[in-house]
Amino acid sequence: MKFGTKVIHAGVHPDPLTGAVMTPIYQTSTYAQDAVGKHKGYEYARTKNPTRSVLESNVAALENGVDAAAFSSGLAAMDAIVKLLRSGDEIIASNDLYGGSYRLLDKIFKNFGIVSHFVDMRDPRNVEDKINEKTRLIWVETPTNPVLSIVDIEAVASLSKGKEIILVVDNTFASPYLQNPIDLGADLVLHSATKYLGGHSDVVLGIVIASTKELGEKIHFIQNSSGAVPGPMDSFLVLRGIKTLHLRMERACANAMHLARFLENHPKIAKVNYPGLESHPGHELAKKQMRAFGGMISFDLKDNSIENAKKVMESLDYFTLAESLGGVESLVSHPSSMTHASIPKEERLRSGLTDSLIRLSVGVEDIEDLQKDISDSLEKI
Ligand SMILES: *Cc1c(COP(=O)(O)O)cnc(C)c1O
User: Fold this and answer.
1) Are 211 and 92 in contact, with CB atoms under 8 Å apart?
2) Measured in angstroms, how far is the CA atom of residue 144 from the centroid of ligand 1?
3) Where are the beta strands (DSSP E) in the chain?
4) pLDDT > 90? residue 145
5) What number does the ligand 1 atom closest to the CA of 326 have?
6) N or C: which end of the chain has fewer CB within 10 A?
């Protein structure tokens, strides 16, 4: 099955009871049992829910995994993965991680004796240098947020292979339409389905895809034991969003490519971070491990002024000033004060995240309107 067919058909079947073509929202907490110890595979909805099960099968197929487990948010999904570890174990993570992921490792799991090392993963040797006998997890995000650096998944996978180390790739920014980390050697893939999978900015949900049955079982055990499961309505909304993932991504990528070129040639812009540009240091690698370059762009003004950056962001009409990304509508954000405020300033600057950096989540609107909006806003400074 090819991707555009998978998003619609993988794991999805008409409801056996009524023939309903769309997966029903099984809004129930429990299931009648035929006799003591005899049931239809469903006992209690924290453990299993049919709407959630369909979503899990569908996303497992999109990522070429064997199993998946859905959670109430992307961070709840990450929380479940880190719970595979024990006190004393160590993690190596990207130094320009999503702000919330950094916070979970540095402010929560650190208190439980799980130490994280944050390294610049653009050079896999930095990962190699930190691997020791306590390393149990490598956490990769690529493209990174918000400077869109590219990490070589295959190269990092070659470092963890054969060791007792789980390689996780947060594939939220690329979506399974652009990148399939399991094919490149990852053990687990994480999505904040709040972003491209859901695609309509109307739901918060996370999902973990496992490359082996054994890892899938371990994640499902934590899902049931810790209990951060999504509701059936939210599972349904993500399942519905996924049906147009390929169409939305295609347009978002084309729009972003166009805007990145426009910004790169604009006299008031110093730097554009977009992996589709030949000037991007990760361009060749992105071409190798991704099918296109995504809908996220960040850029810096020539004068580096926070005031002017604010002026640009606030005068945009079609780019709504908001956190999050991956919806049909375009958004603009100011990472240093919004999504990445929880990362210390020195850490931020080390990964190129200046106070005047502007991030765009490019939606699927008409490109003429988007370009004019940005052009007009830049006129105001
Ligand atoms: C949003 C996001 C998360 C967290 O997901 P939530 O659904 O907000 O909990 C993790 N990683 C990345 C890259 C994200 O963009």
Assistant:
1) no
2) 12
3) 67-71, 90-94, 115-119, 135-141, 166-170, 188-192, 206-210, 269-273, 296-301, 320-321, 331-333, 358-361
4) no
5) 15
6) N
In the reported structure, the alpha carbon of residue 9 is separated from the centroid of ligand 1 by a whole-number distance in angstroms of 26
User: If one looks up domain 245-378 in CATH, what number appears?
Assistant: 3.90.1150.10
CATH 3.40.640.10 domain position(s) in the chain: 3-242
Question: Architecture of domain 3-242 in CATH?
Answer: 3-Layer(aba) Sandwich (3.40)
**Each residue of 328-373: pLDDT tens digit?**
999 999 988 887 887 788 878 877 888 899 999 999 999 999 999 9
Which residues have CB under 6 Å of ligand 1? 73-75, 98, 100-101, 141, 145, 170, 172-173, 192, 194-195, 204, 206
Q: What is the pLDDT of residue 305?
A: 87
pLDDT of 349? 83
Token pair in block for residue 347? 């850490």
Q: Alpha-carbon distance 3 to 22, whole Å?
A: 19
Q: pTM of the full predicted structure?
A: 0.97
Question: Catalytic amino acids?
Answer: 46, 98, 170, 195
